[in-house]
Structure formats: C-alpha cells, structure tokens
Amino acid sequence: MQLRFETVYYEPNTLNYELGKMLRTKYADLPWVEIENHNYIPELTAAENRGFPKLKSLLIIGVRKTHKYVPNHKVSDWLVPFTSSGCRAMCLYCYLVCNFNKCSYLRLFVNREQMMDRLLKKANAATVPQCFEIGSNSDLVLENMVTNNLRYTIERFGREGRGHLTFPTKFDMVEPLLNLEHGGKTIFRMSVNPQDIIRRIELGTSPLHSRIQALNNVAEAGYPVGLLIAPVILLKDWKRQYSELIAQLADELSEKVRKTGFIEIILMTYSFVHNAINKEAFPGAVQLYDREAMVGRGRGKYSYRNDLREEAEAFFRQELADKLGTMPILYIS
Ligand code: SF4
Predict the structure, then answer these.
(1) Which whole-number Å values give the CA distances from 197 to 53, 57, 168, 176, in the listed order?
(2) CA of 160 to the centre of ligand 1 (A)
(3) Is the pLDDT of residue 227 over 70?
(4) How far is the CA of 124 from the centre of ligand 1 (A)?
(5) Does any ligand 1 atom lie closer than 6 A to the CB of residue 170?
(6) Cβ 303 under 6 angstroms from ligand 1
(7) Residue 265 to residues 171, 183, 268: CA-CA distances in angstroms?
(8) Cα of 91 from ligand 1 centre, angstroms
C-alpha cells in the first residue's frame, strides 16, 4: 500500500531527531509548513467539516510531550501514548475523531527513543509482568509504512523488555515484521468486520481476506495473536453479515490462530461529532446513527440499547461456540 500525503506540517525542532531527518528526505518533494505546536494548528482547526478528507491527506510531525499512562483492564494493563496519533484511513466511526474532533490526521512523534526508554523502565520495574497497549491512538501497522517504528519497537522490547506490548490493526502490511526478533513479547491483534462493512464504512483500510492472511502470517512468525471483532455495527441485516464473517474466519484462519488466539468483541459507539462530520464530508455514506437502536450515553455519545446489546452478545457467543470454539472470548463490551 502506497501512502500519499499532500503537505507536511512540522515543528522545526523535529529536524534535530534522526526520524525527523529521515522524513524530511523521504517527503522532500512535498510542501513543508512550519508550525509552533502539533496540538494546535489554527488553520486546520478552523477547517469546515466537509474538508475532513483533505485534512486526512496531511502529515503532521511533532515531538510528543504527553507521556501519561492510563490504567486499562482489557488485554493490556496500561494505555501508552506512543509514536503516533490519528491515522490516514477514514473509518466513519473512528473514536479518534471523537477524541480529537477534526484533527484525527496522522501525527508522528519523532522522539521514539525517549518514549521507549520510559516504557522499558516501567516494564522492567513492575513487580509482575505488565502488558502495554501502544496502539490505542493510531494504527501502528499503517504508521510503520511511513516510519519503520514497529521494527525498532518490537525488536528493542524483545531484547530489553519484560512483559508484553500489544496493538490492534486493520491493515495487512505485516511483511516487514515477520522476521523480527520479537521474543514472543508483542501480541498482535487483527481487527475484523464483514467485507461489506469494510468496503462501505472502514474507508482506506485493508480488505478482510488479506487481514486474515496477515494474521495467519504473524502467528506463523511466532507472535501471540488475537482477533478483534470490532466495532460490531448493527445494520439491518447484521445477523447474516456477522454469521458469514464468522464462517469465513473459521474457514480461512490457520490452525495455529484457531488454537492459540483469543477473541475480543466491541459494539460500536457513535457520537454527535461523527454524525456532523460524516453528513457533510461523506453525504452518500451509510447512516450509522440509528435513532431506534441507539441511546444517549452523555457528552454527545450514543451506544446500542441494552436489549440489543444482550441480543448481540448471545448471538456472538452461540455463533463462535459453533464455529470457532477453540478461541476463548476475553470479553464482549
Ligand atoms: S484504521 Fe483505526 S485509527 Fe484509522 S481511521 Fe480506522 S478506526 Fe481510526
């Protein structure tokens, strides 16, 4: 996959870092615009909602200043602010849109050595091994196409770290990761949805079939693996769509993934902000806000009604027990 950008916005001190210099050379043919702070770029903040796809074609380069780890209680113990935030793809429900509003474009942080030193210090000081989620603010497999940061991260943690790293992805570009010395310390989680949802809603991500192959390949390369069925979207024919998805997974996942992998299931949440941006930026797209099926959860957020959530949970537990019974379900949320 070729990632194309139109303009680079950068903090000048990023050019003092090795990664900043590499990016300057790699994207030398693009316009480079100097900014004071990657967190606040007035002309982009002021952009109209309909300009959202154009914002996604920008690349922002800065130095990460926030390093606060947030405790987590799912696959990982900690959410770690890492080497990027935002993403070049345009999933219509992306929670980063909600967190960062329109600035969900790809931001790269050049001080990866500093972030990694900090992570290793925390990992190695813990009394029991910890798991660190490093991909909660972006898609690191996609980011890796620009920076090669995953190679650095996985190998360094493999050599020096205790416990695990983990990240989810919706991309299939795993080839550069297959021969790394990972030491089994990075848990690779592939996010999947029915192909029709990928095509119409997860704009700019990899197709289902190649995501499944990518997961098979990383499992074969010795990485611990998981499958994220997320976000589950309850469109009109959701039972048929997800039943077909699970049948395809049962058919195409390798024996190794089926025997060693785990499953997480997350139902979609949506928001007023998504709705406003999608209506103007993607007027012909699938309508994800469903007045009948969703209820408000405060601060402009919506999630599916409790009775629908229960119905979905029962459905997934049954379908997965029937077709992928060897893979434990860690949680449905
Ligand atoms: S791939 Fe992930 S980070 Fe990127 S737009 Fe989709 S949901 Fe957001």
Answers:
(1) 19, 22, 18, 27
(2) 30
(3) yes
(4) 31
(5) yes
(6) no
(7) 18, 27, 10
(8) 6
Picking from 59, 76, 46, the residue whose alpha carbon sits closest to that of residue 11 is 59
Distance 90 CA to ligand 1 centre (A): 6
Angle at 171 between CA 168 and CA 175, to 5 degrees: 105
Give the integer Cα–Cα distance in Å for 53 and 280: 11
Helix, strand, coil percentages for the chain (3-state, nearest 5): 40, 20, 40
What single DSSP character describes residue 232? E
Q: Is the C-beta atom of 96 inside 6 A of ligand 1?
A: yes
Say if CB 265 and CB 72 are below 8 A apart.
no
How does pLDDT run across 240-262, given as a tens digit for each residue? 999 999 999 999 999 999 999 99
- Residue 201 CA, ligand 1 centroid: distance in Å: 11
94 in contact with ligand 1, CB cutoff 6 A: yes
Name, in order, each residue with C-beta under 8 angstroms of 37's C-beta and a sequence gap of 6 or more.
Answer: 11, 62
pTM for this prediction: 0.96
Which of 170, 198, 269, 278 to probe ligand 1 with, by most ligand atoms within 8 A of CB? Answer: 170
What tokens were used for 175? 């080839």
Q: Is the pLDDT of residue 99 over 70?
A: no
Q: Rounded CA gap, 317 and 314, in Å?
A: 5
CB 140 less than 6 A from any atom of ligand 1: no
C-alpha 94 – ligand 1 centre gap (Å): 5
**Structural domains of the chain sorted by starting position, each given as residue range(s) with its CATH number in brackets:** 7-332 (3.80.30.30)
Report, as an integer, the average pLDDT of 291-317. Answer: 95
| Alpha-carbon 257 to chain mean position | 20
